[in-house]
Amino acid sequence: MHAALNTPLNEALGCKYPVIQTAMGWVSTSDLVSASIEAGAFGFLAAAVMTPEECEAEIKSIKSKSDRPFGVNIHAFQKGVDRIIDMCIDYDVAALSYGRGPSSKIVDKVKAAGLKCVPTIGAAKHAPKAVKMGADILVCQGQEGGGHTGYTPTWLLLAQVLDQDLGVPVIACGGFKDGRGLASALTFGADGIAMGTRFMMTSDSPTPDATKAKYLDSEVTKIPVSKKLDGMPQRMILNPLLDDLEKSSKLGMLLRGFSNGMKYKSQTGMSMVETVKAAWGMASKTDMTLGQTMMAGNAPMIIQKAMVEGKPDEGVLPSGQVAGLIDDLPNCQELLNSIISEAETRLKAVGA
Ligand SMILES: Cc1cc2nc3c(=O)[nH]c(=O)nc-3n(C[C@H](O)[C@H](O)[C@H](O)COP(=O)(O)O)c2cc1C
Questions:
Q1: What pLDDT was estimated at residue 289?
Q2: In a domain, 218, yes or no
Q3: Are both 177 and 230 inside the same structural domain?
């Protein structure tokens, strides 16, 4: 392997290649994580959408298929997060990833147990704060990245973070899919790349075929950012449902919120009155409207329509813009082999 492909990331996380498979709700399951780590990447299990019981079963499943290290992604405010963190410690998980920060008490606890802390940041000002709180590695996701995302393009964010010289490995994220991207990130000064969409678009991910077909058909300019789903900027493929949401007035959002609330009542276990009360409580604390807050409450169910049930037109499709450039579904091993060989070719060509 080209020496440049052995970076502080490989050493810190114990992976063969400087490539991270990021957490994606209902996508980065044990199937995808075990395949990505066996192929030489470092994979994160998307536990932010799991109960502690589901997370434990998934951790056990990964361990039954591979003895390579892997990480778990959490959301600081999810139900049962303390149990999931204890579980990560008990099962010797190698790293914890998160977005909006858990408390420094949690970070201190997992670090003391030997886990690496790997937050994702989307704005340069968050980098020093994350490191001060204990980050061992920083994943910098530029605006072209999938799911919730920021406003700074990947290369500009990377330059801003590298210029701060924070003393931890910095990983480029948002828009990567191949060896050219990896070689470019390394020559730019990063210690590796992290990819979401590209790993979803493998035959190892559990995303239903009908939904993958929509990603294969997508165009780079038709994967916009919208705040209409849960109030936060989220990049998704433009489908009729997202188009409708974008055009909805405040009243339209309220009606949608109500109708989704009725539709998903049995899944959330909340009555309509409880749903409205919870949404009202949240809306009064944020600048979101009641309709938007009710939509946010139902966002997980709407995403699952596409990502789990295989009904892409009835749900939304979180995606990086890079989906517009992806037209195949290799398995993780084929993907990693091609990324590494292309990166080596580019690095040698530049060296020559
Ligand atoms: C379908 C999908 C689901 C995602 N779910 C999560 C999640 O649960 N937690 C998280 O931290 N990031 C999530 N993300 C963001 C990814 O982990 C990753 O940061 C992003 O996709 C990187 O950009 P890329 O798609 O251009 O590689 C999701 C992204 C996608 C495409």
A1: 76
A2: no
A3: no
Residue 71 in any domain: the answer is yes
pLDDT digits (tens, 9 = 90+) for 139-182: 999 999 999 999 999 999 999 999 999 999 999 999 999 999 99
- 213 vs 218: CA distance, rounded Å: 9
CA distances (Å), 195 to each of 19, 182, 294, in order? 8, 10, 31
Instruction: Pick left, alpha or beta for residue 19 (phi over 0 → left; psi -120 to 50 → alpha; otherwise beta).
Output: beta
Residue range 35-54: average pLDDT? Answer: 97
**Contact by Cβ (8 Å): 42, 69:** yes
What pLDDT sits at residue 277?
Answer: 64
- The 10 Å CB-count burial string (b at 16+, else e) for 28-47 is bbbbbbbbbbbbbbbbbbbb
Domain count, the chain: 2
pLDDT number for residue 18: 98
Give the residue, by CA position, lying nearest to ligand 1 atom 1. 318
Please say if the pLDDT value at position 280 is more than 70. Answer: no
**For ligand 1, what atom is nearest to the CA of residue 49?**
8
> How long is the chain?
352
| Cα–Cα distance for residue pair 120/16, rounded to 1 Å | 21
Regarding whether 172 and 98 lie in a shared domain, the answer is yes
pLDDT digits (tens, 9 = 90+) for 70-105: 999 999 888 999 999 999 999 999 999 999 778 888
Asked whether residue 212 is domain-assigned, the answer is no
**Substitution site in 24, 29, 218, 335 for ligand 1 pocket (most atoms within 8 Å of beta carbon):** 24
What is the Å distance from ligand 1's center to 236 Cα?
11
Give CA–CA dist 248/104, Å, rounded. 40
Both 52 and 172 in a single domain? yes
Question: Domain of 140?
Answer: 3-207+327-351
145 and 263: one domain?
no
For residue 348, the CA-to-ligand 1 centroid distance in Å is: 31
Average pLDDT of the chain to the nearest whole number: 92
Distance of CA 178 from the midpoint of ligand 1 (Å) = 17
